[in-house]
Amino acid sequence: MNYQYDETWTEEDIFTRAKELEGISLKDIIHADSLNNKKNKGGIGNAIQADYFGIAANSRQEADFHHHNIELKVHPIKKNTKGFVAKERLVLSMIDFMKRNQLSFRDSMVYKKTESMLIIFYLHEENVDPMEFKILKVSHFRLNDKDFNIASMDYTKIHTIIDKGEAHLLTEKGYDILAPARKGGGKDKDLKVQHASHIKAKSRAYSYKSNFMTTYYRRLVDKNIHIIDPKENFKKFVIQSLDEFKGHTLDELKSMIDTYKHTIPGNNDKSQIPKILSKLLGAKNGNINSTDEFIANGFEMKTVVRYNKVIKGSHKKTDQDMSFRNIDFFDIDHNEFEDSEWYTMFTETIYILCLFKEDDSGELIFTDYIFHSFDDKFMAKLRDLFERTKKNLPHAKQTKDYNGNYTDVTLTSKSAHYPLQIRTKYTGQSKFVELPNGNEITKKCLFVNKNYIDEIFGLYV
Questions:
Q1: With respect to CATH, is domain 11-221 assigned 3.40.600.10?
Q2: Are both 11-221 and 298-457 of the same fold?
Q3: Residue 259 CA to chain centroid, in angstroms?
Q4: What is the per-residue pLDDT across 254-288, written as a single tens digit (0 to 9) for each?
Q5: CA 441, 442, 448, 449 torsion-angle sign
Q6: What pLDDT does 33 receive?
Q7: Where is the signal peptide, in residue numbers (predicted)?
Q8: b/e sequence 103-140, b meaning 16+ C-beta within 10 Å
């Protein structure tokens, strides 16, 4: 069933008819030729707006449902090791640096815009025709009192910086819900003047952070995974817990958990470590990164294992680089760096790096942990790798030699963008992914060099 929106509709009609979309694939409501850019979220949003609601796409500043002043937003959800999470932040409206702010958050245009917003969540899947994407949930967007107060503080923080003539110092770090996201061509192509300084500032937009959008979606579908009482100070809880675990061997940590008490002592399989720490911190599913508290606070725990170089023997294992998520090459191809998953992954996340070191007897000991945010120098390297990869994608391919080994053509080498590298990481999922040029390639991950991680901990070999 497709509709034609007009002035006879009521607000209830809008949300009732939107609810009918839940559980439906895009192919059931839109025309195939409506998705000119098949991996583009904006294309999907425009297609739903035009084909389902009968609202022609236009560049006017008015709301999509203009008779009722209601905005339409379409937002992708993906499934990974954390469960269902928002694929990206939700961009709201551009920030005007030329106006001194005299409005509270409640009276601001950005709040009024989201106060009347229809949001449609759909499942984005790799290697799946977008016409097969399924709509998961439809919601009349609302901030609860707690979220409103937090977003209001974020809003005040943004405008305090702007009013001081320091818009050029804005960054997405340090905000909990509402952040000043980079928006534009990047690399100083879109510098804007500001009212209280002669220094031009990078163009930015109000956005709800991807971590918040994940939390919001989970509330809708009742998939909350809590590890502590919401009234407790979460970061304090994590610090106190990790301090308690420090100095213990892996076997001792396992003995603190009922499900691990009868495992074989001395089994130093490093793949156990994230699950053990997760369970010790209260995540019954064994994945602390999937809990609401970690997602809402923008935390992600990663473990670092360093083996004793003195020990000799056949059991010897080598230190590993740190891997991150599988790479979505369509995201790189269709987005500027500031709108990419890579940018969000490293600007919105505080990584809790937990270090395990092997002692002379071969035991792994939880030695240290660090709350780490990657700095501007790292982000510049990440941008360079992103731009190089984006440039190479039209010609990217993979060859296979007579031994069955794959070689990437026009992707990057290990030394070209230190400490970063793109390379294969085999998982239990499908081995190949499609590139934007139609070629297939073995699934790739982003890695950070082990020596760089060692420097974070002050480990110099």
A1: yes
A2: yes
A3: 31
A4: 888 876 554 545 555 677 899 999 999 988 888 99
A5: negative
A6: 80
A7: none
A8: eebeebebbebbbbbbbbbbbbeeeeebbebbbbbbbe
Q: Say if CB 202 and CB 168 are below 8 A apart.
A: yes
- pLDDT at position 315 over 70: no
Side-chain half-sphere CA neighbours of 48 within 13 A? 30
- Going by C-beta distance under 8 Å and a sequence separation of 6 or more, which residues neighbour residue 261? 254, 255
Task: Answer whether 175's CB lies under 8 Å from 211's CB.
Answer: no
The number of beta carbons lying within 10 Å of the beta carbon of residue 6 is 9
Q: Which sequence spans correspond to the domains of the chain? A: 11-221, 298-457
Neighbouring C-alpha atoms within 13 Å toward the C-beta of 152:
13
Give yes or no for a contact between 380 and 327, defined as CB atoms under 8 angstroms apart.
no
92-96, 205-209, 365-369, 427-431: least confident range: 427-431
Q: DSSP code of 30?
A: S
Instruction: Tell me the pTM.
Output: 0.80
DSSP states along 175-216:
-SSEEEEE-SSSTTTTEEEETTEEEEEE-EEEEE-HHHHHHH
> Token pair for residue 190?
């879109």
Answer yes or no: are the C-beta atoms of 72 and 53 closer than 8 Å: yes
How far is residue 266's CA from residue 23's CA, in Å, rounded to a whole number?
48
The Cα 306–Cα 315 span in angstroms is: 14
Per-residue model confidence (pLDDT) at position 39? 47
Q: What is the CA radius of gyration of the chain?
A: 24
What is the C-alpha separation between 19 and 339, in angstroms, rounded? 29
Question: Pick from 118, 143, 95: which is nearest to 45 by CA?
Answer: 118
Separation of alpha carbons 87 and 443, rounded Å: 18
Q: What is the pLDDT of residues 444-459, one digit of tens each?
A: 899 999 999 999 998 8
CATH of 298-457, one of 3.40.600.10, 3.20.20.70, 3.40.250.10, 3.40.1190.10: 3.40.600.10
CB distance 265 to 318 below 8 Å: no
Tell whether the model's pLDDT for residue 314 goes beyond 50. no
Asked if 305 contacts 273 with a C-beta cutoff of 8 angstroms, the reply is yes
Give whole-number Cα distances, 182 to 151, 187, 197, 329, 344, in Å.
18, 11, 19, 20, 10
Helices assigned H by DSSP within 2-84: 11-19, 41-47
- DSSP code at position 240: H
Other Cβ atoms less than 10 A from the Cβ of 220: the count is 13
